[in-house]
Amino acid sequence: MNHPFNASSNFCHGPGTRRGFMRMGLAGFASLTLPGLLRMRAAQAATGVGAEADREKTAVIMVWKPGGCSHIDTYDPKPNTTSEYRGPFSTINTKVPGLDFTELLPMQAAIADKFTVLRSMRQTAGGHPAGSMQLLSGDSDTRDKPKPRLPDWMSVANYMRSQGGPRTNPLPVYVGVNPPTSYTGSAYLGDAYSPFAVSGDPNKPNFVVPNIGLSDLNEVRNLGRRTSLRQNLDTLERAFDHANELQALDEFEIQAMTLLTNPKTKDAFDLSQETEKTRDRYGRNTWGQQLLMARRLVEAGVEVLSSSLHGPLCGRVNNWDDHAVNHHVFDALKFRSQAYDQAVSALIEDIYDRGLDKRVLVVVTGEFGRTPKISYQPSTGAGNASAAAGTRQPGRDHWPRAFSNIWAGGGIETGRFIGATDKRGEDSIERICGPGDFLATIYHHLGIDSANVFLKDLNGRPTAIVDHGKPIPELIGRA
Is 377 inside a domain boundary? Predict the structure, then answer.
């Protein structure tokens, strides 16, 4: 059951109309990720949808664990159940009385007063596609689909926050630093509301983010000449522009130009401006440095930030899908725990230390938990956290009936835990929360009234962004 976590492909059709031509914009410039998205957004912008206005913008960082993390081996240990369920890890006290973790999370245990653990999440889909779509978009379908039917909350928030006209901040609303790409997407909102995606390993010395902060003066001058040429061509049709499309395109083009030429945009992505001590605190590895970049970006004004903890730090199959055929589940958890524990605890501490804890909400989750009962199967291949092919090893399988996630910042009351699972960790039994509650809570922090927001799908039908569920009261920030 080695499930691939691959990004879906997007297809771009050539311009066949004047609007299509305008979307292409400047030759050699439209291919850049952000300008292309901004142009599409300008052409597709809807009316009558509100967003937070001029007050300081709230923001969300979502740290995603693709494949699903074992709740029993991390945030919801069951030391008194039988060995068929509990796993090999001992429990440790946290800074919060009555809240224990496993020994894999000592750094998070030491700062547990700075976050809240939600132990009673559940959803109804057992596959990665449907499980991810349930939690991130609210799609209640339990069938796995190749692409999402509904836009994920990140794209919806990007759409909502983009309706108030041009931004004064040159940075995008939504940035993904190695974002989740499998089973997520903007669906009927269109690619204009997908993230400005930063990929690669920010821990590498030669890491750069393309298409920001041009420093070559010749490139800036050439860009300016292309802009002037496009503006001269526009005057030929300005009289026919009844819908003010050109004006809107001009406004978004200014934003794109600013992203390319404003040195502040490059600075926001530049980890070399952090102290060595801070970079060490997060961990000199991919996960640590991508979460450090996440903090830098929300501090600089990015409002929606997603970051996926996948890749070699997970083990052989590059994700948290710890079936016995993929990983020795306990070796895999030990293999990734130090980098995970360090990066997440550093992010949470930094949010508080820098005074961002009211404005920025941090959510750490995967799509579901893992089976409380341990299974045994032959490995399908040797590698990090997996024995040689054919070796019988332990694993935990998909489990949507109970899982945990953690919440920090957002002005919420921290140092506590919400809900409970039964004695084996098989079912959420107290304060049960589902995907709709998860989504409504995030939207509430972003100032979006999810109970009353409907967006038109591809058929023009008003579609609720949350059709069931309410903000979780314990996770609503104090006024």
Answer: yes
